[in-house]
Each structure stands twice: as structure tokens, then as C-alpha cells.
From TrEMBL:
Taxonomy, superkingdom: Bacteria
CDD domains, per database record: OAT_like
PROSITE patterns per record: AA_TRANSFER_CLASS_3
Cofactor(s) in the UniProt record: pyridoxal 5'-phosphate
Leading EC class: transferase
Signal peptide location: none
Protein's name in the database: (S)-3-amino-2-methylpropionate transaminase
Biological process annotations from GO: gamma-aminobutyric acid metabolic process
Source lineage: Bacteria, Bacillati, Bacillota, Bacilli, Bacillales
GO MF term set: (S)-3-amino-2-methylpropionate transaminase activity; 4-aminobutyrate:2-oxoglutarate transaminase activity; identical protein binding; pyridoxal phosphate binding
Amino acid sequence: MATLTNETLLLQQKRDKYVARGVSNGNKSLAAKGEGALLFDQDGRRFVDFAGAIGTMNVGHSHPKVVEALKKQAEAFVHPGFNVMMYASYIELAEKLCNLTPGSFDKKAIFLNSGAEAVENAVKIARKYTGRQAVVTFNRGFHGRTNLAMSMTSKVKPYKFGFGPFAPEVYQAPYPYSYQRPKDMLEDAYEDFIIEQFQDFFTSQVAPETVACVVMEPVQGEGGFIIPSKRFVQFVASFCKENGIVFVADEIQTGFARTGKYFAIEHFEVIPDLITVSKSLGAGVPISGVVGRAEMLDASNPGELGGTYAGSPLGCVAALAVLEIIESEKLNERAEHIGKTIEQAAKRWQEHYESIGDIRRLGAMAAIEFVKDSQSKLPDKEMAAKIAAYANEHGLLLLTAGIKGNIVRFLSPLVITDEQLNEGLEIIEQALESI
């Protein structure tokens, strides 16, 4: 590893002095250049990126098509404000996403800035449409850091502790976690049990006729890359339909080829009423959106939805480039190849290390759960943290996840080469050997 320059050391000191302590840094390097699945710091060190800015860089860093689109847009105009003067890219992106998202019904879209904004606006839309107030999310779910989104989020530390009071009328339903099911319970019986719990929830916690929407991550992200069964997701969707509840798929981390399809909900053969999107939609440029049934988005009056920077031209042109890249470079197919490669490596490691409990993935959305041992399945947060720390010290950007912090997650750009992917996996293998 290269020696840190005086400039880097000075900037690190300034970071500690001037940047809020509440902002975390898993890696203290300073980025200088990004290209595909690689990042370079200002001291010349090279990193293979398995973090992707927390699932934001599916098309990679500084993809030429995205860069060109941004340059062209910035030279024309940066931001007139869509509610002041419209621009074509917003309308074109709305059309593309309305045609791309599941469902043959009429759809409309609204664009915003962040994932949390998308979630909050989905709730606003559902409340306005139904005339109801209650919101249902799920245990271990993550939906953002603003007040309502934070209220909808499950993990207390670091996201909620000390930041209350929280928004009222938010309830968290059970979500399946097959690996951690009771030892004496078979998988089919566990599915029955979880579905029964979900039904009981609407008796013991909140009446369905008061619920505006159920917001579900088709694969839980921050919660640990937990993948529910198709049967459970379909049951939730049918329950919503029967009770006049808006079903919202939160695709902020799962969307845009991460799971091998444009949207993870497609794996479950379910058509949601609304879909929230962000992260990899903009390839690093802030943009988010809500896409869904036209009658739901039209329930709000002009001026009731939006924001100053909502759906900026830079975000819209970046998103249009992203959609072109996903199609032209066949990133849905690439995601499955990446995920399979990670899974095969993890299964080899599992034969040698009892601390590797569960290996799970949907497309390239892959994770390893670290445990004390295979019998107890007690979470081993320390092991996951050590693996991530070793990786970050040896040229691999790697993140952990999970309510108990014992999950190592894989979010590499989908344009990663096989050589880069294997290089990153070798670093993890070295970490396992050394620890």
C-alpha cells in the first residue's frame, strides 16, 4: 500500500475538524478517479469496488455515455426547475419508466432527488388516493433517514436512536428470514407460520381498512439481503388488493438490473401499484422517482407533489443513459453471471470456514452471513467487520449489512470484468485465511 501524502493526511485532519461526526466513513481514502468497477485515490492506490456507492453504480463509475450526457446537458442548461419551465428529458424518462415497470395499466411518474424522498412521496400518493393514514413496512426494512422514512425503517442504531419522536401511524409487519427460522421448523411450515403472523398482524396491530399502503423491499437491503419466498410476496400483494391497500415495491437498491431483472419484484410475478426508484437510476447523479398507476398519481392536485430540484435535468439525462447502457450491455444477464461467480466462491469458502453460515443471492445482489458456528447460527458481527476492514486495507471496497451487522454484501458495478471480480474475491479469501 502506498504511503499517504501530506495532502491526504491534511485533508483527513480537516475532515475530522470540519465534517460532522455523524457522517460515517468506511474507508478514509480520498477518491481521485473512477472507471468502471475501479476507484483510484489521490495517493495512487487502486481499489476494486464491491460497494458501488451502496448500490448506486450498476453501470459503473464515469461510464462514457453518462459523462457525455451530463456534459451535453450542462452546456445547454443546468436547472430551470420543471415546475417553472419543462424540459424534454423529464418527460422522456417518465415515458420510458412507465413502459418498463411491470403492469399493462396506464401509469404516470414523478421524479425527486433521493430514495427517502421517493418513499415519502409514495406514502403521500397512497394516502391521498385512499384517504387513509396508516403505513405498513416490515421488520429489518430500510427506507431512508428523513423523519417518515426513518419511522418506516427497522434498525434502531444507528438510524433512529435519539432522533425521535417519529411519525405516527407506521407499523412493522413480520418478514420471512428462512435461514434464521426455528431449528425444528421445516421451510414449508415456516412459510405457513410467517403468513399466519402477517394475517394476525392486521388483527393485533392495525386494521386493514385504515392502511393506505404496504411498502416492501422485494429483497431487504440494509436488513441483510434477505430474500422472501415468492409465496409470501404474492400473499402480501393479494392481501393488499383484497383490502384496498396500495402495494408499494421499494426498488431503490434492488432496481435496474441488480437482481438480473430491471426490477426485483419481477422475480415474484407480482405487479405492484407503485414502485420507488433511485440509486443506480442516476449512476451517481441524485435522482429518484415514483412510478405507478395513473389514477393514484393523479389523485394529488397540481403543486401538492414536487420540489425545487426534483427530477433535475442532470439526473434525467443520466437516467436515460443508464437505461440505454443496461439494454445495450445486457447488464441483466451480466448480473446473473456475477452473482453465480460470487456464490461459487462463497460455497468453496464455506467448506473450510464454519463461520460462513448462509450464502444467498438474487442475481448479483449477493450476501454472506457470518455466524459463530453453523449449529447455533449466532451472528458474528466481529468477523464480518474484520473481513470488511481487511478488504478496505488491501484494495477492495466492501460493506457490511444486517440488523446485527454480521452480513457482508456484494454491490459491485455490473460492468465489472471477470478479472476484477476474481481479484476482489481473492482478497476476501485472503481475509478469511488471515483472520
